[in-house]
């Protein structure tokens, strides 16, 4: 269980300022007042805590800061980079937030993208001489091979 709200005690400051008194029997006094506030950071933390796994964050679809990433398996290979650029342009053309990750080590890229909770990851690779696009869904761990026309239909 996690508390999302915070209680702010104002002591008797506002009851004195407002002239607010309580009378119990013959005794009159200024009551302690307070307010309850919703903690924004606590709410985000609770959402992350409820939507995570061993690899990182699994954002609810409406809250994902970044929905797509493109990762060429071998960034030094020009054909992979060209196809990755095409995917990037398609995604950006539909006004999506996209990470284009072409750092050297694929294992570091994959771990980073899982950790921050990118929902759909597109990996460009060459298999038996043929360029392929692999779509990976972070929430379901579903992987499949797609082509550019399928990509446009997904959006």
Task: Note down, in words, how this protein is organized.
With 155 residues, this protein is α+β, with helices and mostly antiparallel strands. Helices cover 33% and strands 33% of the residues. The protein contains five helices and eleven strands; from the N terminus they run βαβββαβββαβαβββα. It has helices at residues 13-18, 40-50, 78-93, 106-116, 148-154; strands spanning 5-11, 22-24, 27-29, 33-38, 52-53, 56-57, 68-72, 98-100, 120-127, 130-137, 143-146. Strands 8-7-9-10-11 form a five-stranded mixed β-sheet, sandwiched between helices. The chain has a two-stranded antiparallel sheet with strand order 1-4. A two-stranded antiparallel ribbon has the order 2-3. It starts with a strand and ends with a helix.
Poorly predicted segments = none
Record field, number of beta strands: 11
The Rg value, from CA coordinates, equals 26 Å
Query: Percent range for helical residues?
Result: 25-40%
Q: Into which percentage range does the β-strand content fall?
A: 25-35%
* SSE order, one letter for each helix or strand: EHEEEHEEEHEHEEEH
Dominant shape: rod-shaped
Tell me the span between the first and last alpha carbons: 37 Å
Major β-sheet profile: 5 strands, mixed
Please tally the helical runs, counting DSSP H or I stretches of 4 or more residues.
Answer: 5
Strand line-up in the sheet with most strands: 8-7-9-10-11
Mean pLDDT, rounded to whole units?
Answer: 89
């Amino acid at each position: 269980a996690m508390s999302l709200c915070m209680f702010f005690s104002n002591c008797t400051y506002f009851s004195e300022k407002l002239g607010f008194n309580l009378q119990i029997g013959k005794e009159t006094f200024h009551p302690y007042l307070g307010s309850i506030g919703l903690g924004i950071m606590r709410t985000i933390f609770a959402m992350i805590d409820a939507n995570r796994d061993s690899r990182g964050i699994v954002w609810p679809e409406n809250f994902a800061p970044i929905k797509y990433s493109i990762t060429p398996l071998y960034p030094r290979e020009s054909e992979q980079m060209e196809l990755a650029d095409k995917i990037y342009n398609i995604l950006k053309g539909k006004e999506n937030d996209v990470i284009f990750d072409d750092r050297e080590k694929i294992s570091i890229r994959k771990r980073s993208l899982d950790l921050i909770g990118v929902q759909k990851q597109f990996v460009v690779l060459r298999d038996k001489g043929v360029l392929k696009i692999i779509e990976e869904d972070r929430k379901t761990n579903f992987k499949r091979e797609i082509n550019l026309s399928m990509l446009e239909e997904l959006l």
